[in-house]
Amino acid sequence: MIRLVRELYQYRGLLISLVQRELKARYRGSFLGFLWTFLNPTLHMLVYVLLFTVVMRQNIPNFPFFMFVGLLPWIWFSTSVGGGASAISDRRDLLTKVRFPAQVLPTSVVVTNLCNFVLSLPLMLVLGMAYGQWPTWHVVLFPVVVLIQLTFTLALTYILAAINVTFRDLQHIVSNLLTLWFFATPVLYPLSTIQDEGARSLMLALNPMVSLMTSYQAIFYEHRLPDAEPLMALAAVSVVLLWAASSIFESRREEFAESI
Amino acid sequence: MPESMDAIILKDVVKSFRKRTIRGEYTTFKSELLRWLRGKRQSRDASLITALRGINLTIPKGKTVGIIGRNGSGKSTLLKLITGIYTPTSGDLQINGRISALLDLGAGFHPDFSGRENILINGIILGMTRAEVRARMDEIIAFSELGEFIDEPVRTYSSGMYMRLAFAVATHVDPDILIIDEILAVGDEHFSKKSLAKMMDFKRQGKTIVLVTHELGTVERWCDLAAWIDGGYVRRVGKPSEVTAEYREAISLAEAQSAAFTPPALTEGGGALPQVPSEALPAEGPVRIQRVQLLDARGESLEVLSPEEGLEVRAEFSVEGPCEDVDFHVRLQAADGRTLYETSTRREAVVLSRMPNPGVLRFVVERLGALGGDYSLVVSARASKGESSGRCAFRVVSATEEEGVFRPPHRWLVEPGANSQAGVSFEPGTSPRVEVG
Asked: Which chain B residues are closer than 8 Å to A25 by Cβ?
């Protein structure tokens, strides 16, 4: 794992330019250009707002803001995992022609989406202020939650990217599982809607995204400190997962150039 | 010699691929399920393909080395091993110096980005730092000769412009060892000259260049050493002209024997080209060719001549046994291995009585009449008990750009018609004269 991170640092120039390239390329040629960073999640949110305030009534105050708080980190997570799965297998042009550590590719996907996430944060804050929910001092914990999510997302993306090189079904399986995962995560609803205590703790134990989402909601929506226990547990799990991911990655990296 | 004198050292390097990776079959649910249903997986060895079977090659620092060999003989695999994209299955690989590989031009180019933006990304991908690329930006743009197009998106470029930009970036990386795969022929005449000049620059700076190419002329002209990869081994390393000559001969021999040109890695035994007889049978013939030399009219050895010059092939031989049935052949070959002319003492009913030992065979050509290009001459002594041959390569340089295979003795005349009064005979200085040999 240390080697993996050290190489990432060595090749940070490449990582940065790949991220820049992706960020610039994403909206290049579109009329609204960079505005799409804000427009995409907004439109996404409007769809759900329509669904949950008009069609299925929810009794959550400031529902659009509540949803937005969870939706943005979820988009970061799901686009990273979905795109990261094929990060290596799609870049045959680079991997077979130039020598560089392969982890740069999935990392650049995750970091690109992190940038998009961070760039769309002001939109969330403005929406909160519109509802009279000003950020409180609790936001100091926000970077910690982001760091935990980053570790978890990186680990998952490395594993998926490494396996997808030889097992191409994975990228399709992943994109479908992500939809399921989305509804199993309290983004559109607060965790408290689940009445059964047992089911709730089961969800919390099985789905790492639950404690992340509730933490974001705690910080921005409920203005309290996130529950430390599940968050710390997830942090530990993420580090172990990242360690496992890097050893899987290490053991397979020699195959990458030959297999894709 | 201390080890640091060598840029690249390969010792018994073997590279195998699993078959599915060569055939491009990926593991999928279906294939995995089928394999599981059919019973356990086949043994691993059966599905291995060995591209390189044991490469021993040392590339000294500061040399330009050309790697030749037919398609699928493992040249590119070798380059990828040297570059570090592949890791050897077994064997030792030692690299001394910063390496830069131009295996592909324009790696990471994005069509929607301008030339300038792509220079930055491509440069970083090729191993430069951001600051280095910035510092060389103007130089690269100037080299690419794209002018104001540099700020247009790359997708609007013609393929020539694209390659020029890519090549410009690639050559401005500053490595100790430069690995090039088949990309010297970029752009138009003018630009390829410039590219070659750039290569020469690298050479002068004492950089090591490893070059894979099918253009044997390039190898002969630019390389200090040539390595011929065949059937997963290094078949021959040595002086470019000698290695390419033997390579050409092996190719023409394979064609003559109509050997199937399947990808060597997929063939049993590595699919090496047939051995050139001169290599395989020299000890068996009663008459052994020791040395073949080309001499000009004054008796001095020559390598370059003009189409109108004559030459003398001088083959020294020794006699090792009874040789009543010996038959001397002389064959003139073009660069691609085609036989242009072949004759023999028997065909011309030359009586060979009382062979001297050692002896010299002289084949005198009064006027060659070949066009500009590279040729080789093979002299062989064939007998029922075996054959021995020797060869030498030479080049014909012609000031005239003719086409075809040979230059018949000719002259130009413009004569007055029936009603005209005056006539002029044209004999421009560049045109050949009319002496029939």
From this structure: 110, 112-113
**pLDDT tens track for B74-117:** 888 888 888 888 888 888 888 888 887 777 777 778 888 888 88
The CATH number given to B3-98+175-237 is 3.40.50.300
Q: Of B84, B85, B113, which is closest to A96 when you measure between CB atoms?
A: B85
Is 0.80 surpassed by the pTM of this model? Answer: no
Q: Specify the amino acid at residue B368.
A: L
Under an 8 A CB cutoff, do A167 and B107 touch? Answer: no
Q: Which one of 2.70.50.60, 2.30.42.10, 3.40.1010.10, 2.60.120.260 gives the CATH number of domain B278-396?
A: 2.70.50.60
Question: Of B26, B103, B130, which is closest to A97 when you measure between CB atoms?
Answer: B103
Burial of A179 (C-beta count, 10 Å sphere; 0-12/13-18/19+): exposed
- ipTM, two decimals, is 0.76
CA distance B402 to chain A (A): 41
